[in-house]
Amino acid sequence: MTRLLFWIALIILVVMAVRSKLRAAVAARGFGPDAGQGGTPAGGATRAPPRVEESERMTSCAHCGIYFPASEAVHEGGQDYCSQAHARLPASSRPD
């Protein structure tokens, strides 16, 4: 019976230690309940909001119809193509 209590106590201590380490890691990043009031990081320092990348306009290939970023388009004859090989082929007659 003593062995069982020992192992239970040991498991509880290990779980508590792991949880403590995880909470410290989250607080170090500046998030979580230990971070301070109003979602500010610990220590009261203000942090700039994360930068949001602007999404790029997508276009579709006139031959195969796949969508890809417009910055990667090959422009030929007023149409957008996904590659030089498709720019040499005729445009598809598929209804869009």
TrEMBL record:
Organism domain of life: Bacteria
List the biased-composition ranges (Gly residues): 33-42
Record protein name field: PP0621 family protein
Positions of region (Disordered) = 32-54
UniProt cross-references to InterPro entries, sorted A to Z: PP0621-like (IPR049708)
Entries under NCBIfam families matching the protein: PP0621_fam (NF041023)
